[in-house]
Specification:
The protein has two domains: 123 residues, Nucleotidyltransferase, domain 5 (2-Layer Sandwich); 193 residues, Nucleotidyltransferase, domain 5 (2-Layer Sandwich). 39% of the residues lie in helices and 17% in strands. The strands form two sheets. Strands 3-2-1-4-6-5 form a six-stranded mixed beta sheet, with helices on both faces. The longest helix has 25 residues.
Length: 375
């Protein structure tokens, strides 16, 4: 470890459309959980891929008069890492090797890491990985139905959205610490969406596997598809591997079904039959995914909605829960539409929650553990 003592931590949570940044002061050795931060959110469309300009705006907006002592980054794919890590040259090389498994997120995040290292050479760069939350998945969840030699290459279930899931569980524990020891299904629904089954506070299953392209349909990502359909497209439509990858990440999902947008806000405002179909497909597949996670848990005690859609789209939550009425799940209509934290009706056999996750604090906490554990 090259830095010690108190200082400021800059957290950079780079998404596909925005950068969420936060400043935590009084950060350093002995920090267990960082305090309340200053926060900003910056739209990426004005930066044209210039990470130095993005860093300059973030630090100016957060009032950094001096170099941050620590910089914490959200990294989507951490591979087999079981904890946050210092982003030295060797670790950055390892993460670059994983970039093809998260092409929407990994390359721009690593470009931001490298720009921050050049701008602040004495700051310690820390990586908090979305995959760490799922690092202890059971073998019968981790293993995909492929030959051993493919598994040895890394073709296995990693899972993603781990920082969001960790935050949701922490927020749930604030309501009742006993809840997290039960059977919890976490539904993080946004531009990227995935589900997680958690028991005793640990991930035991999740819908995304080797890449963030898997699982339920998303804004522009396909989610799970018949692999045979991909062979058909390669042969019939003349796709290259790269052009097919581009289409699966950017032209499918709700955008592909609706033909107009992957943004749920626009789809909810539209009365077109294609937009309605996109909403229905999303709700059905998410509900089926929740039922699958409940099967992994042998039941469900709590369902937790988070993410841009999960926390903010009452009509979508309602559509999903209607499919799950057979489980004894019922929403309180008024609580759902006023965006309460607790959403279940009195007769519901399953508690239903809505939380607004705080990934930046989870990144800061991961960095704090890394700092206190030493090299």
């Amino acid at each position: 470890m090259t830095a010690s003592g108190e200082g400021s931590l800059l957290v950079l949570n780079l998404g596909s459309a925005t950068l969420k940044a936060a400043r935590f002061d009084g950060f350093g050795l002995g920090t267990e959980r960082p305090g309340r931060p200053q926060r900003i959110e910056i739209a990426l469309d004005q930066f044209s891929g210039d990470p130095r300009a993005l860093l300059a705006q973030a630090t100016d907006a957060l009032g950094f008069a001096a170099t941050p002592a620590w910089v914490g980054h959200r990294i989507v794919h951490g591979g087999d890492a079981e904890a946050a890590r210092i982003l030295d040259a060797g670790e950055i090389d390892r993460l670059h090797a994983l970039a093809s498994l998260a092409p929407m997120h990994q390359p721009p995040a690593l470009a931001l890491v490298e720009s921050a290292a050049k701008l602040w050479p004495h700051a310690v760069q820390c990586g908090a990985y979305d995959t760490v939350w799922h690092a202890a998945l059971p073998a019968n969840t981790r293993r995909l139905p492929v030959p051993q030699r493919w598994d040895a290459l890394g073709v296995r279930r990693y899972g993603f959205h781990g920082l969001a899931f960790a935050s949701a569980m922490r927020l749930l524990a604030n309501q009742d610490d006993g809840i997290v020891r039960g059977r919890v299904v976490l539904a993080h629904l946004g531009g990227g969406s995935s589900l997680c089954a958690a028991q005793d506070g640990c991930s035991v299953d999740t819908t995304m596997a080797m890449t963030p392209l898997d699982g339920v349909p998303m804004a522009t990502r396909s989610g799970s598809l018949d692999p045979g359909a991909l062979f058909f497209l390669l042969r019939q439509e003349g796709f290259t591997v790269d052009s097919l990858e581009q289409a699966l990440y950017h032209e499918c999902g709700m955008r592909g079904i609706s033909g107009q947008s992957g943004d749920m806000r626009e789809l909810l405002a539209s009365d077109s039959p294609a937009a309605e179909l996109a909403r229905e497909v999303f709700a059905l597949r998410v509900a089926q995914g929740i039922a699958g996670m409940a099967t992994r848990l042998s039941g469900i005690d709590d369902l937790v909605f988070s993410g841009g859609i999960g926390a903010n789209a009452a009509d979508v939550r309602s559509s999903i829960v209607k499919y799950l009425a057979w489980l004894g799940m019922q929403l309180d209509h008024d609580a759902n539409h006023r965006e309460a934290t607790r959403l279940d009706a009195p007769a519901s056999l399953i508690r239903i929650w809505r939380v607004e996750v705080d990934e930046e604090s989870e990144i800061a906490t991961a960095c704090a553990h890394l700092v206190t554990s030493g090299p």
